[in-house]
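In the previous lecture we treated proteins in isolation. Real proteins rarely work alone, and many bind small molecules. This record shows how such a complex is specified: first the sequence, then the SMILES for zinc ion.
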Amino acid sequence: MAEMSETEQKRQLVRCMRMLERQGIIDYNGHASARAGANRMLINTGSCQRSQLSVDDICTIDFDGNLIQGNAKPPLEFHLHAAIYKARQDIDAVIHAHPNWSTILTTAGVEYLPVYAQGSLIYPLPVLDSPDSINNLAMAARLVASLGDRPAALMKAHGAVTTGKSIVDAFVLITYMEDNAQRQYMAQAIGKPYAFTDDERALCREKLWNDSLFQRTWDHFSAKLDAMDAKAAIG
Ligand SMILES: [Zn+2]
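The predicted 3D structure, ligand included, written as tokens:
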């Protein structure tokens, strides 16, 4: 991500948020960030309109939440992003949202199962055992401890977090997670969901976890967003 300019990073964050909003993964809440040098990140402002996002809605803050550049304050849960960046040097992008299907599982106390290939990539998926907002250092530390060395986590009766080396990674993983959770819910409604075995998951990881396939997933949703925008423009 170092080679990408900050303007490009902002554009990518905007695109990511808008794609998540169109899919219903974020609504009036939810935030995505990207590491931007030492002790700095780019993140959407707390008050922004997620469906109409522009680069002006992305602010630059330090890991204490101080505004370095931008029109409005970061979300109250910026602590979640800051704590992950401080603890995990391997992570350069973070998404936090309250997606319905994934969150319903933890609300019901049901374990996330790897029920389809893409959704198995983040399994096992740790769960933060608290519904409290990550709006302070103590809760952020608990979330980081739950996440451990994993790429994603659920937060009980609250939401989900995904991470990555890039915004594309974090976007793709939350998309897979939510899709898997919906499939699991539906399978559970009519029977016992089939959970992939360790060997099957290892094969999925080998075949499906690579930059070109992740980019293809991003491009799929990106093209869809363009098509929807074009339709809206025609009226
Ligand atoms: Zn939240």
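Summary for your notes: The helical segments are 6-22, 78-87, 100-107, 137-147, 167-190, 198-208, 211-234. The radius of gyration is 17 Å.
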